[in-house]
Amino acid sequence: MTYILANAMFPVLASLAQGGVVQILSLMDNRGAPHGQVVDDNLAVCWGVDIAGYAGNTINLVNAASDDKVPPEKVASTIAGVAAVIANLPAGRYRLGLTRPSTGAGGPPMPSKDVFLLYNPPQFPMYAHLP
Amino acid sequence: MANDYSPSSADWLNGLSMWDVLAALHRLGGYDRSQLVANATQTLTQRGRTDSAQRITWAAEVVELGALPTWTPPNLPLDRVESARQFLAAHARPKTGPPVTAEVKTAVSNAIQSGRIRGDNGQIAAVLKSGVYQGKRRDDLHPCECDVPCPS
After folding, report:
1. Domain boundaries, position A102
2. What does each of the 152 residues of chain B score in pLDDT, given as a tens digit?
3. Which residue of B has its CA nearest to A92?
4. Cys staple from B140: which of B10, B44, B100, B136, with CB 3.0 to 4.6 Å?
């Protein structure tokens, strides 16, 4: 599949890189996450990026054991990283997909341990099957 | 190759990949492009290389239309059509934001080279080189949508 990187993404990446090292997890998610627009069977436009770390802060709330709390240092690093990303974005309007605690990559969300925002399944059809 | 409409320019153009033919024609102004294409197609046709002449004509239409023409040379391999479609995707960039300035593009390029943008598995570097990157399509993934081999 061929992906175009939206023009609007270039100044975002340039601006973020000025503020710190950007650790990219992925560009448009090939599983259909809302990171872009599928044009046809072989073409898509990438409008988003998953960031795994920024300015020395790891952005990751994955926790191996579902019964445990997410380690405070992980929470602190993630909050600092997200805050730094927001601070270094060029002026504009964005949709932020904020990371959530889980037992592993691609694992189920753990709403009781959410760090950023309240869990709101009706707004996110991909989580509609969850309690 | 602007202002060079000699038979050798036909050979040069015909020797390029589809992507490079399109890139070369894209860089030329309308007059130079039409002259070069007219010369090349005439030269190739006179040599009996009708398929090659049609390929050049078709490529010129791709550039001029900014879209795939309604016709396709009968013997044009499908991967050449795909290459043209990718070229259009990389250069047309419809509705994806304001044009990227050379300054911004250079800044992103420098950030990648200096390690200030990391971990993209070459996707952004590919974008800077050719305007697009390649990735899996949804159908290529395992039904459970994982990227790695998994049971079942």
Report:
1. 2-127
2. 445 556 688 889 999 999 999 989 887 766 788 889 999 999 999 999 999 999 999 999 998 877 888 899 999 999 999 999 988 877 755 567 787 888 998 899 899 889 999 886 677 777 776 667 777 655 554 444 444 444 43
3. B97
4. B136
Domain boundaries, chain B: 7-92, 102-140
**Mutation to test the A interface, candidates B93, B133, B136, B146, most A Cβ within 10 Å:** B133
- Of A94, A50, A5, A15, the residue nearest B104 (C-alpha): A15
Instruction: Report helix, strand or coil for A51.
Output: strand
Q: Which of B116, B133, B134 sits opposite A17 (nearest CB)?
A: B116
For B53-110, give the DSSP string. Answer: HHHHHHHHHHHHHTS--S---TT--HHHHHHHHHHHHHHH-TTSSSPPPHHHHHHHHH
What is the ipTM metric for this complex? 0.83
Say how many domains are in chain A: 1
Note whether B148 contacts A: Cβ–Cβ < 8 A. no
Q: Which backbone phi and psi does B130 adopt, to 5 degrees?
A: -125, 0
> What is the maximum alpha-carbon separation in chain B?
62
